[in-house]
Amino acid sequence: MAEFIGAIDQGTTSTRFIIFTRQGKMLASYQKEHEQIYPQPGWVEHDPLEIWARTQEVIEKALRFAGIKAEQLAAVGITNQRETAVVWDRRTGKPYHNAIVWQDTRTDQIIKRLGGEIGQDRFRDKTGLPLATYFSGPKVTWLLENVKGLRADAEAGHALFGTIDSWLIWNLTGEHIIDVTNASRTMLMDLATQQWDPELLAAMGIPEKILPEIRPSSDPGFYGMTLRDGPFGTAVPVCGDLGDQQAALYGQTCFSPGEAKNTYGTGCFMLMNTGEQIVPSTHGLLTTMGYQIGGNAPVYALEGSIAISGALVQWLRDNLGIIQESAEVEALARQVEDNGGIYFVPAFSGLFAPYWRSDARGAIVGMTRYTTKSHIARAALEATAYQTREVLEAMNKDSGVALKALKVDGGMVVNELLMQFQADILGVPVVRPKINETTALGAAYAAGMAVGVWSDQEELRKYWQMEKEWQPQMPAEKAEGLYQGWLKAVTRTFDWVE
Questions:
Q1: Do residues 128 and 278 lie in contact, with contact meaning Cβ atoms separated by under 8 Å?
Q2: 126: helix, strand or coil
Q3: Would 290 disulfide with which of 208, 219, 301, 410, CB 3.0-4.6 Å?
Q4: Within 13 Å, how many C-alpha atoms sit on residue 268's CB side?
């Protein structure tokens, strides 16, 4: 009997395979990092073949550690870094170019060209998205315009485009599929119809024949069965697929309108369920797909996207060398009582929500001779909390709903200093679940729902349990003063890139 559900969690810096029980508990996990490629300033790439190799490795290792056979998996779900774009040759399976990562800013001139006299809101009514380097459609335009022979192959039907979920599904099953959540991040899909839009494709010069088929996030009809010569060695249904932040929304069981979660990973992403209603944002947020389960109506969400969060801690480690391991940042930051008057605005790839300024660049402001590396470490952690408050305020205005508590997940939520400061700056409780791997859990839930492992979403709610809650402790006046200093610091990063 198939007792377990597998989830491939393909993130910006690593790939994991996690095996869950029917009670939503982790049985085994294995993780492997992949290379971050920086060909020039502002460019970020991944090797798709390395990602596929890592995926195969973590599947095989996790199954071995769990002591189970692939035949015991009822289904497999996938969750992925969302806007990263890859184009490959259907005849050979080889990519035409490295994947262009969501953080990459090389499409800035394409974005300006697309905006024309209308500007960044040209496609917002259809897509829910502002024109920005973040999204994958313009990355495909760049590839078609810059990779020799690609356009001819695309027109001939030889080239395939996908986000990383599509790349993995194709390698696992031979099928060219994308789910509604990932499709909604391409800037090529009409949110209302969940179909590729001819007007958007024409504007970006993208032939429709290179695009994958759009399917629900949880598909009882399956995307396909794993190939017997693949890492599972047998046929297992692949039937769950959500972009990483939507997967975390689902894994946190935010099934009702007004429920929200914040994921602290490489970037930081807050999503609020808005139900079956498409809520346009007038405060710098994204309107996006939340999820679609089988033949049910799609669920939409508001999202605030922050480009640099955990990546800033990695930068302190890899670029400055002031810590040896990411986990050391909390102890270093605790050596001082406050930020010493400095703010660190990590606009390395411009600013995402609520500003959408590709002309911004990172800055540390307010430094004096008193400033130490401990102050810099503390300011780096605080930056995530300040940015989250900016997003939360925008979300409150767009939705008309004031959050009473914030569910959190992701790698940074083990940082107790950050979580307490987050509660202080927001003025609401911050809640961490017992199972922190909610991104992979959401993908597992989607796959399990497709094959009947779970009967409905109310059953999934029973498995969510709180591990810890942080209550605001800082006086509101002090928190407000610190936040106003942050807002002042952010303005110093504008207009840096001409």
A1: yes
A2: helix
A3: 301
A4: 31
In 81-132, beta strands by DSSP E: 85-89, 99-100
Report whether 98 contacts 46 (CB < 8 A): yes
Q: Which one-letter amino acid corresponds to residue 341?
A: G
Cβ atoms of 386 and 312 closer than 8 Å: no
Contact assessment for residue 198 and residue 206, using Cβ atoms and an 8 Å cutoff: no
Tell me what pLDDT residue 1 has: 54
| Helix (H/G/I), strand (E/B), else coil: 9 | strand
Facing residues of 240 across strands? 77, 218
Q: Tokens 């959050």 sit at which residue?
A: 403
| Residues in contact with 455: Cβ distance below 8 Å, sequence separation at least 6, in sequence order | none
Q: What is the pLDDT of residues 365-400, one digit of tens each?
A: 999 999 999 999 999 999 999 999 999 999 888 888
How far apart (Å, rounded) are the C-alpha atoms in residues 150 and 372? 50
Measure the N-to-C terminal CA separation of the chain; round to a whole number of Å. 61
Residue range 432-471, pLDDT digits in tens: 998 878 999 999 999 999 999 998 899 999 888 889 999 9
> What gap in Å lies between CA 180 and CA 246, rounded to an integer?
10
